[in-house]
Amino acid sequence: MRNDYTIAAIIGFITAVFITPILVFSRTPLAYGSFNLPIWSLFIILPAGEYVAYVIASKLFSHVTALKQLGRFGIVGLMNFSVDTGIVYTLQYYTGISLDDPRILYLFVASGAVAIVNSYFWQRTWTFSEKAPPSTKEFMGFLLITLLSIGINSGVAFWAGTFLLRLDIIAPSRVLGAAKIIATAVSLFWNFFGYKLFVFKKQ
Length: 203
Hints:
78% of the residues lie in helices and 3% in strands. The chain is built from six helices and two strands. The chain has a two-stranded antiparallel sheet with strand order 1-2. β1 (30-32) and β2 form a beta hairpin. α2 (42-60) packs antiparallel against α3, α3 runs antiparallel to α6 and α5 (136-167) runs antiparallel to α6. The longest helix is centred in the last third of the chain and has 32 residues, at 136-167. Residues 72-200 form the GtrA/DPMS transmembrane domain. It holds the Pfam family GtrA_DPMS_TM.
């Protein structure tokens, strides 16, 4: 159990690593009211926050496996969102591809490919606690669910991004992040139930 708390803190640290380029490249200050926090504070806040959140959730849902899995899935999902979006922001910054350029889909797919590997490792070993050795069938099932999710995520992100650009209601530098948040929310439940019911169903 304590090992789970440590894992939650490690995931929080990884999340901080990839949230950093999101904040830097979108020029979004880490602010609370009129108080601006330094970006390095994320490397304390997120690991500690994930640790505490998991301690509380594990106590509340200690006898409900599905809810414990959902809590872990959420923690891993936040990390995976930061990995995916952090990579997209970095690639966009260095390639200069704008959000309304169809080539942005290549960047979404590239970041999604990295996120697949990251997600498979953490969802298998921690969220669903799969003990059996990995199999080709299992990975192919995971890959199928995830590729469909990438399609959903990329399509929604592209649609949401172009829609938000036309509305001109938020700063252009922050549209990508907003679009990815919308896309992630849409694909979140698809991923959880797909993994639970079809990939790691023994758990």
